[in-house]
């Protein structure tokens, strides 16, 4: 597992791109907004269900839906989230998004305990459309695994989208 | 017995063993071999026979899945139509859920299900029943209220409407494709009272009528899961529209005022019946489904030869879809019954309501009471508004137990906290008349 950046340093996307990582691996920055997540993740993973998972130094993971998913769903009118401290196994449904009369299940690709849920979404579900990969995060999970190899990285997800 | 007879034939044909313990009654008579009936094969003979049988076993054709049970039908890879003849709404919704869950996800799969329910009201996954439904009226009429697992608004079911549910993969999900198929099927049939169209919300409506209205014939609701999705709707054929509206109409005086920021509101529309018989509708839509998603009929050699000799190959490319009918005597497995129980559970029906407040006004006592309802429909607080006269201090005191019960909430596990049930709240209010009024207003339970 590699360390993306020094977590103590304040990073702006511009110096991230120019100093820390080669451009190719960080193209997702245009979609991601790390500020609401508290720290820059050391890993970013994607699922075939169009969810993203960021892995942070402190052992927590944030989970949300990708921009592609948010656009496909249309305007969200309600977001159902789990309770803090609820425990999930990999593959479990953690909540759902209602948009234009459709209820879409959201899954967690890794098991863990819910550390926090994004309460802002319960009053403002539209945030998931405006900033799905930032302010529209869904839950923060405390995970046990350190192995996220089964999930796609950004390149893999892009290929998956192109299929 | 069949298999044993089969074995005999095999052995005979190949090795021609005359004295065998598997002789049939006919053989006995023909050959006078009655005495040999009790012949016991030696272990060595058995071993040899089995070896021989093994080596001669014809290759088993791929097992044709029997669709004798609901489970095997639900697991089929081919497109299927399910028609439920049951009328219990809990069972029908549970069967729909079951058929959906058992359907294999991507790359390709299609299901169509029809069901007709006894009178009931069905709200969307994220709706507030206190807001959408006249609960006291429903309760007095013993009409059940259900919360479904798809999004969208509230509908009333009765024997005059057919519910259709079209299931497919997630990548094939479309809000319009299936309702277009339904509308085309009805319009092409040409015998319907109205010409139909699909609205921008994915509903089926009449074309604009002389009064300028597009009457709604069917709403649409959707659910998307991993690798699959469904689109279901409630087609009004011969529903009792007069009653339908009443079950959903709330008056602020009687049913209070519900406020929330977030639950899904139903969109009220003018509705109409298309006055088609339910079987006719099912047949028309099934036929359209078959043409679209059916598999090519498997013809045997003779049929193929015959078709080619007669030059009918192009015409005979018939498509087929198997229909599975769920009847009273169809075995309903445990999984379905468990789902039906979940659907009946108060925690799902009512507890799944997003946070809200509910305010009632009582003119006789000049009081206002507002309940603050949190997650899982737990009573978090209430506010009482009373004129400050001495006669009202008694009324105020009659809410003391309720206050105490709410204060205790924090100390209790989630399951034991005070739920927003009319009868439970009323039980904590010591003024009889006010207690009854509140219980009745909340949901008609006292």
Structure description:
The complex is a heterodimer of chains A (163) and B (446). With 163 residues, chain A is an alpha+beta fold. Chain A has a domain at 59-145: Beta Barrel (OB fold (Dihydrolipoamide Acetyltransferase, E2P)). Chain A is 20% helix and 28% strand. Chain A contains five helices and nine strands, in the order H-E-E-E-H-E-E-E-E-E-H-H-E-H. Chain A has helices at 13-20, 67-73, 120-123, 127-130, 154-162; strands spanning 43-46, 51-55, 60-65, 76-80, 87-88, 93-99, 102-107, 112-117, 139-143. A six-stranded antiparallel β-sheet of chain A has the order 1-2-3-9-8-5. Chain A has a three-stranded antiparallel β-sheet with strand order 4-6-7. Chain A is globular. Chain A starts with 12 loop residues before the first helix and ends with a helix. Residues 1-28 of chain A have low confidence and may be disordered. Chain B has 446 residues and is an alpha+beta fold. Chain B has three domains: 2-56, no CATH class; 70-349, 2-Layer Sandwich (BirA Bifunctional Protein, domain 2), CATH 3.30.930; 356-443, Enolase-like, domain 1 (2-Layer Sandwich). In chain B, 37% of the residues lie in helices and 20% in strands. Chain B has 18 helices and 17 strands. Chain B has an eight-stranded mixed β-sheet with strand order 7-8-9-10-6-2-1-14, with helices on both faces. A four-stranded antiparallel β-sheet of chain B has the order 11-15-16-17. In chain B, helix 5 (89-102) crosses helix 13. Residues 1-28 and 58-66 of chain B have low confidence and may be disordered. Chain A binds chain B through residues 49, 77-78, 80, 83, 96, 98-105, 107, 122-123, 125, and chain B through 124-126, 149-153, 175, 201-202, 219-226, 229, 261-264, 354-355, 375. Strand 7 of chain A pairs parallel with strand 9 (216-225) of chain B. Chain B: This is Lipoate-protein ligase A. Chain B: Keywords: Ligase. Chain B: It comes from [Candida] jaroonii. Chain A: This is Glycine cleavage system H protein, mitochondrial.
């Amino acid at each position: 597992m590699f360390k993306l950046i020094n977590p103590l340093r304040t990073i702006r996307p511009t110096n991230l791109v120019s100093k820390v990582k080669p451009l190719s691996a960080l193209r997702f920055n245009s979609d991601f907004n790390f500020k609401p997540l508290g720290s820059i993740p050391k890993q970013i993973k994607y699922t075939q269900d169009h969810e993203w998972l960021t892995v942070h130094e402190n052992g927590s993971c944030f989970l949300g839906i990708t921009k592609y998913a948010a656009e496909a769903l249309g305007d969200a009118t309600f977001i159902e989230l789990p309770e803090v401290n609820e425990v999930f196994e990999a593959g479990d449904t953690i909540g759902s998004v209602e948009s234009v009369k459709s209820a879409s299940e959201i899954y967690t690709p890794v098991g863990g305990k819910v550390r926090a849920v994004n309460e802002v979404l319960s009053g403002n579900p539209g945030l998931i459309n405006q900033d799905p990969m930032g302010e529209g995060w869904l839950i923060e999970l405390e995970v046990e695994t350190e192995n996220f190899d089964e999930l796609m990285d950004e390149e893999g997800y892009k290929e998956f989208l192109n299929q | 017995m069949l298999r044993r007879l089969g074995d005999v034939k095999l052995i005979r044909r190949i090795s021609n063993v005359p004295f065998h313990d598997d002789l049939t009654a006919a053989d006995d008579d023909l050959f006078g071999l009655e005495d040999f009936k009790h012949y016991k094969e030696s272990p060595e003979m058995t071993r040899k026979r089995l070896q021989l049988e093994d080596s001669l076993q014809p290759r088993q054709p791929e097992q044709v899945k029997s669709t004798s049970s609901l489970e095997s039908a639900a697991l089929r890879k081919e497109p299927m139509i399910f028609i439920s003849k049951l009328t219990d709404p809990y069972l029908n919704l549970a069967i729909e859920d079951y058929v959906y869950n058992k359907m294999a996800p991507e790359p390709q799969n299609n299901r169509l299900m029809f069901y007709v329910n006894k009178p009931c009201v069905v709200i969307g996954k994220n709706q507030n029943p206190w807001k959408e439904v006249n609960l006291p009226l429903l309760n007095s009429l013993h009409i059940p209220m259900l919360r479904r697992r798809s999004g969208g608004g509230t509908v009333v079911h009765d024997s005059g409407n057919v519910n259709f549910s079209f299931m497919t993969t997630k990548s094939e999900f479309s809000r319009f494709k299936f309702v277009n198929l339904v509308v085309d099927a009805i319009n092409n049939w040409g015998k319907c009272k109205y010409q139909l169209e699909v609205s921008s919300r994915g509903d089926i409506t009449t074309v604009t009528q002389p009064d300028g209205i597009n009457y709604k014939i069917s709403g649409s609701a959707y659910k998307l899961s991993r690798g699959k999705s469904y689109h279901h709707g409630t087609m009004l054929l011969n529903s009792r529209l007069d009653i339908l509206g009443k079950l959903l109409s709330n008056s602020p005086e009687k049913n209070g005022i519900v406020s929330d920021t977030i639950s899904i509101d139903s969109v009220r529309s003018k509705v109409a019946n298309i006055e088609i018989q339910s079987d006719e509708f099912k047949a028309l839509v099934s036929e359209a489904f078959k043409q679209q998603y059916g598999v090519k009929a498997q013809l045997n050699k003779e049929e193929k030869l015959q078709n080619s000799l007669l030059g009918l190959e192009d015409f005979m490319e018939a498509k087929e879809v198997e229909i599975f009918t769920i009847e009273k005597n169809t075995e309903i497995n445990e999984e379905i019954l468990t789902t039906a129980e979940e659907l009946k559970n108060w925690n799902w029906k009512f507890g799944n309501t997003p946070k809200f407040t509910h305010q009632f006004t009582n003119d006789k006592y000049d009081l206002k009471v507002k309940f603050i309802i949190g997650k899982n429909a737990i009573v978090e607080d209430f506010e009482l508004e009373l004129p400050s006269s001495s006669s009202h201090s008694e009324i105020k005191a009659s809410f003391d137990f309720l206050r105490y019960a709410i204060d205790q909430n924090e100390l209790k596990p989630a399951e034991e906290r005070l739920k927003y049930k009319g009868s439970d709240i009323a039980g904590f209010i010591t003024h009889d008349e006010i207690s009854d009024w509140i219980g009745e207003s909340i949901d008609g339970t006292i």
